[in-house]
Amino acid sequence: SYELTQPLSVSVALGQTARITCGGNNIGSKNVHWYQQKPGQAPVLVIYRDSNRPSGIPERFSGSNSGNTATLTISRAQAGDEADYYCQVWDSSTAGVFGGGTKLTVL
Amino acid sequence: QVTLKESGPVLVKPTETLTLTCTVSGFSLSNARMGVSWIRQPPGKALEWLAHIFSNDEKSYSTSLKSRLTISKDTSKSQVVLTMTNMDPVDTATYYCARIPSAVSGYYMDVWGKGTTVTVSS
Question: A44 vs chain B: nearest CA distance in angstroms?
Fold first, then answer.
């Protein structure tokens, strides 16, 4: 079965750049999507198909995907960006797959 | 405005069957390019994808839960129903439904319901 690996936590200073990784075997050949989830709320799509932002998502959120690692980058991090972030792919054998989630702390 | 709303029992007993309903608005389940997924999240844990269904009745299930899950839709009622048999306390979770906006491979979910919490306990 296909697995996605995320760091449990990432910290970033206010106004700096946060990078959250998502590892998977040859993940660069797949479309990767990213969701933000704040406590007590449903997830929100922030990046789809590697690097596309839905309407309403700030340009500070960007994504990339190559080789065995996909990355969600949050520029000029704000206190409101504190949340859990999940990557997700579709695998032909495993179907829908989520990473284990990364807790982003803004210091 | 696209919305999805989950409904179902708050509490189920072990071995019982869970039936959850997702009622959608703002889009049609007959739209050939869209689908609906079910995802769950145990308390304090990660998201877990469960199943999806498209307008052409194409369905897919989590490989680990496939034997226990059934997904169906009633287009006239704008509802997608998920049943899970033989419930166990480890199935205690918040269950979400979400829209898949494109049937192009590499599915993602762009609008989510608020979720419904299900506790499995005797």
Answer: 7
